[in-house]
Amino acid sequence: MVSDALESARTAEEQNRFYYGPVKVRTSPTHVYIASSCVCAGKPNVKAGSGVYWGPNNPRNTMSSVPGKQSDARAALFAVTLALLSAAPDQTLVIYTPSLFVIRTFCYWTGTNYTEGWPCENADIIKVTAELLRSRSAGVIFRATTQTQVNNHAREAHILAQKAARNPRLPSAALPEAPVCDVEGSTPVDEADAKVFTTVPEESPPKRKLVDVTDADLDPDPPAHRGRAAERALQRENLQTLLNVTSNKEFWNLVRGWTDPKQRTAQVSAEELREVFESRLNPPQIVPEEFDKDERERHQNLCDMLPSSTPDTTPHRTFSRPFTIEDIEEVKLHIRKHNIRSAPGIDRVSYRKILQIPNDILVELFQASVLGIICIYSKPC
To answer: Which of 20, 88, 245, 278 could form a disulfide with 195 if both were Cys (CB 3.0 to 4.6 A apart)?
Structure first.
């Protein structure tokens, strides 16, 4: 089960696809522009607003205050919520937003946040909006609008957001309930087609000039031998990689990749170990003559007096209650906060790998492990 659990680990992209489900309908796209605004940021009277613009004189054009804490980030997230609430779920939607944070939240980080119990900031809005995206049968494409690409629609969305933020009489908006959705449903159009998609990279590329390495930077007079050209090419590649690291973390990861021992194939299989230890740890089928039969009988009688199972008398049934998804989410949150950078153990399984394993599979694994231990200790001697 452990091997199966490790093999089930999903990358962030796979987690996203699993969470949102497949695209079931593909149509000609509808376009909507969203924006956010925040006035008096950092002051007690801070106010944020969201704007959604579908087009001239469109009845779905909306401006709204933001539920809960007031900030520009929450306004940008809530603008997506408003757009989805007024969009047809069976029609392909293109959302234009100036916020790269919003795009990355829903296109890259939702699956991870979901498996870890939504530990992110502004989780209330993100969770509801993600469920709205999940409940759609058609896909959603997020596109970024920059200052050089602003058009009338983007300006109108920003004007609506500003009006909402500057209107003291506008009542505080209520966050809608997350819809109950079934991602299975009808046959998908294309399994490889992501339901929520963007061309914006997850991380902005670093703005730096790479250092070029030539043969002049290497040993000018290397000894002649077969394979010298390949060796110098590798030296040049390694030196260029080393000179272009941008942080201490990147440097030490590179050094460890060069110097850490490589994994070796086990010389003794698990099955061979099982056969050896099975005969050593289990009682012999035929009792040897050198055994004290009276002492063995006394131990057997004591074992027979033990109950087949021990009642769990703890207040919260700590030792007997089944594991839940919430337990796994709590553990993953703790790992991300305190242990995410810990080095892997001898099994070479990192905490990042564990975070990628689906929660339901971890529940089954932990439950089976506990039941296995209970069965072992419940057997008569």
So the answer is: 20
